[in-house]
């Protein structure tokens, strides 16, 4: 079953306690687009094909959303994020040991780590704790490259 219908509505799977071994296909028709502070819930309007009348209006149901996720998730420590007047960015180090500031979006906040939705690839070298005032083009020295093998790579501003 495709995740989205031809009309752009999200498909979901619904189960009800009365029919424990059955799953019902439904589509999301509308959402409140807000979270209730008291319950942590979001109101949604689901439409389900129910020609035999097995499902009762207002009955309790569990709904599962098969949301898309990237094949390769790029997770970085939350300390790598830079919030400033230009938006949300992450500092990386290019092949000339210079800083590059990448504008990024967060797809999921995991607490101490965040999953990056766009703006960063898995092969980029991220500065874990960028100092205040770091700028694109700043020369950095990679700590541990001249030291013992296996030393962690972290960038330090020169």
Helix/strand layout:
Layout: E1 11-16, E2 19-31, E3 44-48, E4 62-64, E5 74-77, E6 81-84, E7 87-93, E8 99-103, E9 105-109, E10 113-118, E11 125-126, E12 140-143, E13 154-157
Antiparallel strand pairs: 1-2, 1-4, 2-3, 5-10, 6-7, 7-8, 7-11, 9-10, 12-13
Please count the beta strands (DSSP E, at least 2 residues each). 13
CATH domain class name of the largest domain: Mainly Beta
Gyration radius, rounded: 23 Å
CATH architecture of the largest domain: Beta Barrel
Largest sheet: 4 strands, antiparallel
| CATH fold-level topology of the largest domain | conserved putative lor/sdh protein from methanococcus maripaludis s2 fold
- Helix content range of the residues, please? under 10%
Residue runs with pLDDT of under 50 for 5 or more positions: 147-152
Count of spatially separate domains: 2
Q: Shape, please?
A: elongated
Tell me the span between the first and last alpha carbons: 54 Å
Helices and strands, in order, run as EEEEEEEEEEEEE
Return the average pLDDT rounded to an integer.
83
Specify the structural class: mainly beta
Across the major sheet, the strand order is 3-2-1-4
**Beta-strand proportion:** 35-45%
| Structure annotation, total helices | 0
């Amino acid at each position: 079953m495709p995740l989205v219908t031809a009309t752009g509505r999200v498909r979901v799977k619904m189960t009800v306690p009365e029919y424990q071994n059955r799953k019902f296909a439904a589509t999301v028709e509308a959402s409140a687009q807000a979270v209730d502070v008291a319950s942590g819930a979001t109101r949604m309007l689901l439409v389900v094909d129910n020609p035999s009348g097995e499902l009762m209006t207002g009955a309790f149901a569990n709904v599962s959303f098969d949301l898309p996720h990237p094949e390769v998730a790029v997770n970085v420590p939350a300390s790598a994020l830079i919030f400033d007047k230009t938006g949300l960015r992450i500092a990386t180090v290019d092949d000339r040991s210079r800083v590059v500031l990448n504008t990024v979006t967060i797809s999921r906040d995991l607490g101490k780590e965040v999953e990056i939705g766009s703006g960063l690839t898995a092969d980029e070298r991220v500065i874990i704790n960028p100092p205040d005032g770091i700028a694109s083009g700043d020369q950095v020295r990679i700590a541990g490259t001249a030291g013992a093998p296996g030393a962690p790579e972290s960038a330090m501003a020169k």
